[in-house]
Amino acid sequence: MINTVAIQGVKGSFHDIVSKEFFENSVDIIECMTFDRVVNALINKECDAAIMALENSIAGSIIPNYALIDDYELHIVGEHYLDIQHNLMALPNQSIEDIKEVYSHPMALLQCKDFFKNYPHIKLVEDKDTAEVAERIQKQGLKQVGAIASVLAAEIFKLDILAHSIQTIKHNETRFAIVKRTNSEVSESEINKASIKFEADHKRGSLATILNVMSDCNLNLTKIQSLPIIKTPWKYAFFVDVTFEAYADFEKAKSLIEIMSPSFKLLGTYKNAKS
């Protein structure tokens, strides 16, 4: 059973919301300001699992998190999709016209930039975490300062929401990975998604051949992300997510790709959150 989970951010953050929605039992939270700290908490056995955002439907992949999972030999054991609704909030009895600065995570600012075109008097400032800014405003009594965060953060830190759902694209989803030190504990009958990493020979058609193997084995490619191989300039590794109906199909494809690829790693097998 998972009792303690490391998250990026504080209570009221989107990672905190995922911890409440994903785990059936109530879990204790270790608040971390960076994903490096999240990973350190996991590998140092301060927690049983960690939650890491991997991609957003607007802003794309969070590539450094793929690298962290790979570098520290971590295992993806589950995933969760969260509808991200960004809200502008501040201390009570203020209007948007009173706000001079808004602090938030760079990803949140990027997703809300069109909203602030209507308020050129507001300075946007990048910060470490959405909910942590809300907490700081409340603790320090910061007037004329706003935060972009969740409704939960506004409730926890007793802030007024000045504008709801200010993200540019209203359907705004982030995919989060549940990560552990060991591989999946999901039963084989429930596994219908896998995350893998492989390299392709640096010659014509090598990547296409591997992708054809996936297709021939009835795997559905849902994600492919290239990442430079630091020690080998101009060569890339590929992080791939696949879904399947039969685990035997994945096992067959895996055995073939292991032969074809100079380097292959299974990052995790788990239940598809979209199925």
From TrEMBL:
Its EC number is 4.2.1.51. It is an enzyme of class 4 (lyase). Coiled coil: none annotated. It catalyses: prephenate + H(+) = 3-phenylpyruvate + CO2 + H2O. GO terms for cellular component: cytoplasm. Keywords: Amino-acid biosynthesis, Aromatic amino acid biosynthesis, Lyase, Phenylalanine biosynthesis. Residues 195-271 form the ACT domain. GO terms for biological process: L-phenylalanine biosynthetic process. Pathway: Amino-acid biosynthesis; L-phenylalanine biosynthesis; phenylpyruvate from prephenate: step 1/1. GO terms for molecular function: prephenate dehydratase activity. Residues 4-181 form the Prephenate dehydratase domain. This is prephenate dehydratase.
